[in-house]
Every structure is written in C-alpha cells, then in structure tokens.
Amino acid sequence: MGVSVLKFIQINIYKGQYLDDLMRFLKDQNPDFISMQEVTAGEMNLCDKNLDLFEYFKKELSLNGVIDKVMKPVDSPNGYLGNAVFSKYQITGSKTLVLKTFEDFTLAKFNDFKSFVKFPRNLLSVKCDLDGQKIRAISWHAAWTAPPTDTEETLRQAKLVAGFLKNLKEPFILGCDMNAAPQSRTAGLVNAVANNLMMNSGVLQTNHPKVHKIAPRGFLIDYIFTSSHFKLKKLEVPEVTISDHLPVVAELEFNSEG
Q1: How far is CA 177 from the centre of its chain?
Q2: What is the mean pLDDT of the chain?
Q3: Contact call for residues 41 and 50 (beta carbons, < 8 A)
Q4: Cα–Cα 20 to 30 A to 111, which of 74, 211, 223, 252?
C-alpha cells in the first residue's frame, strides 16, 4: 500500500466528566484511530447515567470500534469501565491480554481511592485493515500508582505487555495511560520492544495541571508506542479540559515495509 499518514489520539476520558468538550475536540481532530481508557456506562459515568459511552462515541464519531469491559460492578448491571479502540478502518478481529484480575467490585469500592491499586487491568489489541495491510491499534490502562512509581505490580504487567508486543506479527500503534514516568523501569520494559514517541518530544506532563487528582504535580504518564513501521511527523499534547488527562495527538507516516 506504500506510505500513508495516519492520525492517532491517546486519551483517558475520565468516565465522560467533560463529555461535550471531549466530543467537540475529537470531531475537530478527525483522527484515524483513538485509544481510550476509562470508557464507562450507566452509574459509573461522570456524565449522563443513561449513556453507554462506547456506543455514544461510536455513533457520534461514525467510527468502527471495540470495547473491553474490564470492570463490571456486581451492584450495577448496566455499568462497566473499560478500554476501547476506534478506527476509520475496517476492524477484522481483536484480542484481550488479561494483566490482572480481582474480586467482584461494588460501586462503593469502585469509587474508593484506596481500591484503585486493586483494579483489574487488561490490554485491548484490535486488528484493522488498511487497504489490505493489517495493523494493530492497541489500548492499555496500566497498574495504578500515584505519584507514578515502579512497583512489583507495574513491572510485572509491563513485562507481559512487552512480551505481547514483541511477538506481534503486524505493525502496531499502542496508546496507553501507563501511570509510569519516562525514566522508570516500567516504561523501560516497553521502550525495549517499541518506539516511544514521547522520548525527546519536549512533553513533560500529560496529567491535567488543574483537574487531575495529583495536580498541581505534573507527570508524563500517557504514551504512544509504535513498531518500526511508523515515523513520527508531528506530536502534540494540547492543554484542553476534556478529561483529567491531556490528549496525545500523533501524526504518523506508515510504511508497510518497516
């Protein structure tokens, strides 16, 4: 298929807290791919409790998509929290890498800050068809730490993710809320098998400087990683209030030859 330019956005959407502004931003950006975390429905939303945010984005943005419902509270039958991937291109398959499981959650535990470290975690990998060329668009929400710190659990999960990426046969783009700093051993495990677009980007912070739980402390915790098939043309982290995280927007030149 030769060389093409793709736009990829990574964003943790904070359970739809700023849904209208987020939707306007995504429509204006018109991306080819979006990796999302904290996609919710029902009582788990921080917006309209009647919405399923995955279905809402899929319809309003006219994109194909896959949702992995990582958490489903036992006392909220319509609620979930998960990872999603959206694409302008045909989706031909998906795979979930389970990184951590835990006991059934109630809404009370879900909203308890002390429970965050116990949350189950998955990686969602979606296979897309770009005019006959298969690529993987991936969304990952890593183990919780605040402030971001290497722990036995962050390292264990990052090692699993690195192994998964290393064994992929297709070109890939991974967007993630990694909860890890660039200089951490956790990030280093993924750096060893993928191109970290945040390296030497000049970006110092991706948690929102005013509305994130650990503000005003600022950390680079959101990333886009790629296989060698992608060359970065442009990367931006606009300071917009569409979440408690800032979006990472990358324009990538894709060469199927790698």
Answers
A1: 5
A2: 95
A3: no
A4: 223
| Residue 118, both tokens | 């116990």
The one-letter amino acid at 61: L
Token pair of 69, please?
């419902």
Contact by Cβ (8 Å): 66, 52 = no
Q: What is the DSSP letter of 242?
A: S
The two tokens of residue 77 are 């039958």
Q: Which residues pair with 254 in a beta bridge?
A: 4, 230
Which pTM does this prediction carry?
0.97
Here the tokens at position 155 are 């390292």
- Strands lying side by side in the sheet with 33-41: 64-71, 80-87, 33-41, 3-12, 248-255, 230-236
- CA angle in degrees (0–180, nearest 5) for 66-11-94: 20
Instruction: Please name which of 7, 5, 9, 40 lies closest in space to residue 176, comparing C-alpha atoms.
Output: 9
**How far, in Å, CA of 233 to CA of 174, rounded?**
17
Which phi and psi (to 5°) does residue 167 adopt?
Answer: -95, 0
Domains and CATH numbers, the chain: 3-255 (3.60.10.10)
Strand partners, 100: 121
**Measured CA distances, 194 to 180, 191, 254 (Å):** 16, 5, 15
CB 121: neighbour CB atoms within 10 A?
23
Q: Cis (ω within 30 of 0) for the bond into 216?
A: yes
Provide Rg for the chain, Cα atoms: 17
Query: Helix-strand-coil percent breakdown of the chain, rounded to 5?
Result: 20, 35, 40
State both tokens at 102: 């835990």
